[in-house]
Amino acid sequence: MYTIILKIIERIFIYAALIYFIFSIIFFLLYSHPKRYKSPFTPKDFGFDYEEIKLKTRDNIILAAWFIKNPQASKAIVLCHGYPMDKGNIFNMTNFLSKKYNLLYFDFRGMGKSEGFFTSGGYKETMDIEAGLKFLNSRGFKDIGIYGLSMGGAAALMVKPGKLKAIVADAPYADLSAVLDNIFSVFGVLRHPLLDIMNIWNKIVFGITLKNVSPLKNIGNLKVPILLIHGDRDSQLPVSGSKKLHQKNPKSQLWIIKNADHCETSFVAGDEYNRRITDFFDKNL
């Protein structure tokens, strides 16, 4: 009888471990290989002349990009979309910047029309941003700023210091591990072993753990002007993330937009959104 009980307990642990293993693979793939979204338009459909280009990252991934040139402008801005969208998703909310700046939009790896199977949630994506900066440098641009939405904002805040002159991050997360911990909170205490196993997959695929994907660890090293924007009703990435980022870098500006959910700030703030971002880049680029 005692032997039978031990075997039952042993099988329970084995089956539980197997279930965790399978679920960890499923959740890892859902997070790291999202369904691709491809905008059904180009800037030309909205009256913008543009150049369709390809960017190559230092780990040899080809990114699809749009370059909108402003012949009267000597400065440029890189535009970074959120997860799991593409460059077209932020086009209508940011093209107002073309009046004063050259603009570079691109699809992050594993999204839109870019190459790549996986997304790392922002960490590897810093190489995508660097590819954009390299392109702009090759065109003679030295004064370069960046606008990032959601994951794009988080990735912008993780770029190595010295590569950008001004950063606007709308609805960024502060720490990816904390975000996933919150998402998986529905599993209660069982979320911890699940996240631990997902971390193993992260280490195998990306060579990093979730704790490495942390704008909070990098923002204190950034000496350039930073504008953090967040909606106070953000249901996906709580405003507390931007508050933590601001505390870590007190020289940054924090603009909290009332009654705005995730990625709704531009619609809620309207013309003030355009004006404040334009003024920020005018002053700091």
Number of helices: 10
- CATH architecture term: 3-Layer(aba) Sandwich
Low-confidence stretches: none
Mean pLDDT, all residues: 93
Strand count, sense and barrel status of the largest sheet are: 8 strands, mixed
Percent of sequence in beta strands: 15-25%
Number of domains: 1
Output the CATH class name.
Answer: Alpha Beta
Level of helix content? 25-40%
**Numbering strands along the chain, what is their spatial order in the largest sheet?**
1-2-4-3-5-6-7-8
Q: Can you write the helix and strand succession as a string? A: HEEEHEHEHEHHHEHEHH
Shape: globular
Q: Could you give the distance between the termini?
A: 77 Å
Query: What's the number of extended β-strand segments?
Result: 8
Rg over CA atoms, rounded to whole Å, is: 21 Å
Report the structural category. Answer: alpha/beta
User: Considering the protein shown, what is the CATH homologous superfamily?
Assistant: Alpha/Beta hydrolase fold, catalytic domain
Q: Do you know the CATH topology?
A: Rossmann fold
